[in-house]
Design a protein that fits this description.
By secondary structure, the chain is of the alpha+beta class. The protein has a single domain (about 30-325), classed as Sulfite Oxidase, Chain A, domain 2. Helices cover about 15% and strands about 20% of the residues. The protein has 8 helices and 15 strands. The strands form 4 sheets. A 5-stranded mixed sheet has the order 7-6-15-10-11. Strands 8, 9, 12, 13 and 14 form a 5-stranded antiparallel sheet that branches. The longest helix has 8 residues, at about 205-210. It starts with about 60 loop residues before the first helix and ends in a 9-residue tail after the last helix. It holds the Pfam family Oxidored_molyb. InterPro entries: Mopterin_OxRdtase_euk, OxRdtase_Mopterin-bd_dom, OxRdtase_Mopterin-bd_sf, OxRdtase_Mopterin_BS. It comes from Triticum turgidum subsp. durum (Durum wheat).
Length: about 325
């Protein structure tokens, strides 16, 4: 295993010009508000028994990159809106050219062990990848909060304590091909490779919401997320979903707004510049290209929350679900 890199190194510029880092460089491996040299704070929100509350240095697992040939602009994307996105040629495409939904060949996935190289991480997209600019991107926090705010990426990175840990993401449709062989669902044929583990770095959603002054639990019972994509579902909408407030605010849940994956800024397919990571939940709850966080009384009203990310009882087929205005059996 390669030795870990120096803790205070500067993250290199993002490889795509339209997804560039800000002109004024700053260290994505530090948090100005932490004031403790990168250490995790001890206190009421920490139940760590580690000496001095110092978490593991996961970079020894992902740096340098894990012997994977570089991603390239795939000729199959030339006639699509994703022609600018670099992708690994070994990924198995499951829905034709567009949108891009893919998984790594199982032998390649298994050969890398615990940590999956980012180029081989499975991808679930509902539409075109948004072109993002780090220097102009903002995340709005609004709804039932006392201090609504629009955070720039620099404010998000430097204004909150950073945390980093490995998380396994899995599409709820993993191995659906086998399910469809027994009984056809309305989802496409995922194989066994829609599962990947990488090391995510970001800031706790709980910290962001507390700074904005979330209103009482009796009123503000849900936290809704909205991405940047323009999607066709429901006649046209953004991708959105929600979590219960109790999950979003639970310090043991480690829900984060992630801006790094395996020690690098997020790749376009994985949500650059920022996405939600919710350990223990299906990938469909982890909104990519995050633009808005809305604290609300009710769950998200997004088409993709109510109708596109549901696993229904075995007696409910797509026809019955649509007739009763329920969800489909597609999952992200």
């Amino acid at each position: 295993m390669a030795a870990s890199v120096e803790y205070n190194r500067q993250v290199s510029a993002h490889p795509w010009p339209t997804n560039a880092q800000p002109k004024a460089a700053f260290d994505l491996f530090s948090s100005s508000s932490a004031g403790n040299g990168g250490r995790r704070r001890s206190g009421a929100d920490s139940d760590s028994d580690d000496e001095d509350g110092i978490p593991p240095d996961w970079r020894s697992l992902y740096s340098p990159r894990l012997d994977v040939e570089p991603s390239v602009k795939d000729p199959r994307d030339e006639a699509t809106s994703d022609a600018w996105v670099k992708r690994h040629p070994a990924l198995v495409r499951l829905t034709g050219k567009h949108p891009f939904n893919s998984e790594p060949p199982l032998p390649r996935l298994m050969s890398h062990g615990f940590i999956t190289p980012v180029p081989l991480h499975y991808v679930r997209n509902h539409g075109a990848v948004p072109r993002a600019d780090w220097s102009t991107w903002t995340v709005e926090v609004t709804g039932l909060v006392k201090r609504p705010v629009k955070l720039t990426m620099e404010e998000l990175v430097t204004g909150f304590q950073a945390v980093e840990f490995p998380v396994t993401l899995v599409c709820a449709g993993n191995r659906r091909k086998e399910q469809n062989m027994v009984r056809q669902s309305s989802g496409f044929n995922w194989g066994p490779g829609a599962i990947s583990t990488t090391v995510w770095r970001g800031v706790r959603l709980r910290d962001v919401l507390r700074r904005c002054g979330v209103m009482g639990a009796g009123v503000a019972s849900n936290v809704c997320f909205e991405g940047a994509e323009d999607l066709p579902g429901g006649g046209g909408c953004k991708y959105g979903t929600s979590l219960r407030r109790s999950v979003a605010m639970d310090p043991a849940r480690d829900v984060i707004l992630a801006y790094m994956q395996n020690g690098e800024p997020l790749a376009p397919d994985h949500g650059f510049p920022v996405r939600v990571i919710v350990p223990g939940f299906i990938g469909g709850r982890m909104v990519k290209w995050l633009k808005r966080i809305v604290v609300a009384c009710n769950e998200s009203e997004s088409y993709y929350h109510y109708r596109d990310n549901r696993v229904l009882p075995s007696h409910v087929d797509a026809e019955l679900a649509n007739a009763e205005a329920g969800g489909t059996s597609r999952s992200a």
